[in-house]
Design a protein that fits this description.
Blueprint: H1 2-11, E1 14-16, E2 21-23, E3 39-47, E4 54-62, H2 67-80, E5 97-102, E6 107-112, H3 115-118, H4 124-141, E7 147-152, E8 155-156
Length: 198
């Protein structure tokens, strides 16, 4: 009976407590630090300078061993800001990730420093952009993440600037994203470039 239990645990999902990452199957190996050649593409979401939409931007991260490590890289790339000058940063450059961990039931908990609040623009749209840039980046790029709970300095917040209820975990909302092509990966195009000259 003991042997059967060991085999069952080995071949099913195993919760790696020290890394807080849910891994499926066996034989998952890989380096914590990878070469420049071992990178994967992810998609980030940034607000534009005009309008109330989020736009997609491609980015590469290291294909590290754990989903937690990759998720942290995604958020750090989001903090670094967009490469396209037509887009705005979604998060304040001064914000830090205090902690990020995943649970076995599909939740991601992201704990930010207080700059997360200070850097959030006022108004409903600004708050939506701040929250859903994080939520969409994690739920879109990681199939095992179905919802995201945002914390600040280890604490649950009622709201950021009086609009969204941060006591709940958020699912992804792709209706906020304006995809520019069939692949859904392009940054925004100049809306006037195909118009006739006056």
């Amino acid at each position: 009976m003991f042997c059967v239990a060991v085999i069952y645990l080995f071949y099913t999902r195993i919760w790696i407590a020290e890394d807080h990452t849910l891994l499926t199957g066996v034989g998952r190996t890989g380096p914590d630090f990878t070469s420049q050649d071992n990178r994967i593409e992810v998609v980030l979401f940034f607000p534009s300078k005009e309008g109330d939409r989020l736009f997609a931007e491609r980015r590469e991260i290291f294909d590290t061993r754990t989903n937690t490590s990759k998720a942290k890289q995604v958020i750090n790339e989001l903090i670094a800001g967009p490469g396209d000058e037509r887009l705005f940063p979604a998060l304040s450059p001064g914000v830090n990730i205090r902690n990020l961990y995943l649970t076995s039931d599909g939740a991601a908990y992201v704990d930010f420093s207080t700059e997360f609040i200070r850097g959030c623009p006022s108004g409903t749209t600004g708050e939506l952009h701040t929250v859903y840039s994080v939520v969409n980046a994690l739920t879109y790029n990681f199939f095992m993440i179905s919802r995201v709970k945002i914390l600040v300095e280890g604490h649950e917040l009622l709201t950021l600037k009086g609009h969204l209820d941060l006591r709940k975990a958020f699912s992804g909302n792709m209706s906020l994203v304006e995809w520019q092509n069939d692949a859904g990966m392009a940054t925004p195009v100049d809306k006037h470039e195909n118009e006739d000259e006056p």
